[in-house]
Amino acid sequence: MDSLITAAGRALAAGDPFGALNRVALREDAPALALRGIAMAQLGDLDRAKVLLRRAGQAFGPREPLAQARCVVAEAEIALVSRDLGWPAKELDAARATLEAHGDRLNAAHARTIEMRRLLLIGRLGEAERLLSGFDEGPLPPALDAARALAVGGIALRRLQAGPAREAFARAAAAAQRAGIPALAAEVEAASRILEAPAARLIAGGEERTLMLDAVAALLASEDSLVVDACRNAVREAGAIVPLATRPVLFALARALAEAWPADVSREALLARAFRAKEADESHRARLRVEIGRLRAELHGLAAINATRDGFALAPHRAATVVVLAQPLEEAHADVLALLADGEAWSSSALALALGTSQRNMQRALEALARAGKVQSFGKARARRWLTPPVPGFPTSLLLPAPLPDG
Question: DSSP letters along 249-299, please?
Fold first, then answer.
């Protein structure tokens, strides 16, 4: 490799894309194309960067698999930043295997970090943790060490483990400072701020108060409280979880009963809450009895539902209190706003993949939010992207998908 290529590579590693372009901007050989692509990515011209990296991969050819694999990793990172979550992950897996086979541990570690971050975005925490367990524990350059610590902190955050998350973000901040890359330091600072923002609201006895992440974790681990979790649509007590995400009527009934506890809820109020029935007739009352019976069956190990003169009341078997854990911001399509709060530009297909819904449902949600002035878009057709300014104090840790139980 000639001196200009070496100098351009060092400039990129230090976060100086202009210094790299000053050395290779007019060259068309494969190494120069790859470096130009990475430089354009650092400058934010992702479309041009993808074209240059694809040309570089083709120019290297099959006789240079190591260089080709590095181009694939760079392209995968661009896909992650541009929230192209449908980018073929198998290509990144193959590139990582090639890098490991040729002894390029640093780029292999970078590829593993990109895979982990993508899995975090789509809620596959178990797979992300398995990748983390296979991570090379040897020393890494500061920038790569910061990226790995960010991924570790992201996993801990999504697991509601505030202590490990705080430690990981502290390691990331120290590594980013050693790297001297302002953009990386800003990313670490933004991730750390989530720990200082309210994570949820606690509703108990007709009163509300905000909880930090530590308090949320302590509440979910407590054996004294039956928690109706409106962040994940589940009912919890200590380690026991009854998921109701696919049964919205049952969850609406459970939440109404929990908010009123220890008092009962009238049949009319339950009908209005669960079925939106303005005027109840006998068919509504019959359906309510059926759904209450189904809810009893789901909660049989945690609580009973007793009929009263006017309606129904929740009676926990072991817990001393019943509380509702609600999202910090409750409105239509709050999960979409939570993802867009990271300030990145998302495609509707990436949002649908991250939230586990259909692309058509996601397009409807985005159109509704756009009419309300809460999101905006640019581009057309498949190049259309959606974004919104970050909402102050709006944490995403409880809204991003994490299946219960984790698969």
Answer: HHHHHHHHHHHHTTS-EEHHHHHHHHH--SS--HHHHHHHHHHHHHHHHHT
Tell me the per-residue pLDDT of 307-358, one tens digit each, with 9 for 90 and over: 999 899 999 999 899 999 988 877 777 778 877 777 678 888 888 888 878 8
Amino acid making up residue 306: N
> Nearest Cα to 197, choosing from 390, 394, 329?
394
d(CA 303, CA 316): 4
Kindly give the pairing relationship between strand 311-316 and strand 265-266: antiparallel
Backbone angles phi, psi at 325, to 5 degrees: -100, 110
3-state DSSP call for residue 265? strand
What 3-state DSSP class applies to 322? Answer: strand
Of the candidates 119, 141, 197, the residue with the CA atom closest to the CA atom of residue 165: 197
The pLDDT score that the predictor gives to residue 388 is 74
Q: Which of 86, 63, 79 is nearest to 111 (CA)?
A: 79
Q: What is the pLDDT of residue 263?
A: 92
What confidence score (pLDDT) does residue 240 get?
87
Angle, CA 211 vertex, CA 209 and CA 213 arms, to 5°: 170
Spatial contact of 271 and 284, defined as CB atoms under 8 Å apart: yes
The whole-number average pLDDT for the span 294-301 is 92
Per-residue pLDDT at 253: 93
Dihedral angle over CA of 47, 50, 51, 56, nearest 10:
160
Burial of 207 (0-12, 13-18, 19+ CB in 10 A): exposed
- C-alpha torsion sign, points 344, 350, 356, 361: positive
φ, ψ of residue 311 in degrees (nearest 5): -170, -125
In whole angstroms, give the CA distance from residue 9 to residue 34. Answer: 10
pLDDT in tens, 127-142: 888 888 877 777 888 8
